[in-house]
Amino acid sequence: MSYRLWWRWNDGVSGHVWLSAGDVDRLAEEMARYGCADLAAQIAAVETEVTITPQEVGRALERMPSVPIHLEDAELWGDWIRFLEGAEQKGGLLVRR
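^ thats the sequence. predicted structure below, dont judge the formating
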């Protein structure tokens, strides 16, 4: 199983990412450590499709550090932070499974 995430306003070339269930679990666990469990749960629990507002993304970004404390894959975390920063500016997230 995988997750497909897009910025709500994207050009069809940039602004999308595909994550494995394992990646989503690891990112959600790290996000929960910073008080962002709500956003992590919305993404992890999607059954078909969910939209996440730029405001929700922004609130999560305010709490998350640029370098993970517990997640060993710092590159995954850095890519995730940059993707969320784009989502905040590009209308939020559309998440599909």
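Residues 74-89 form the longest helix (16 residues).
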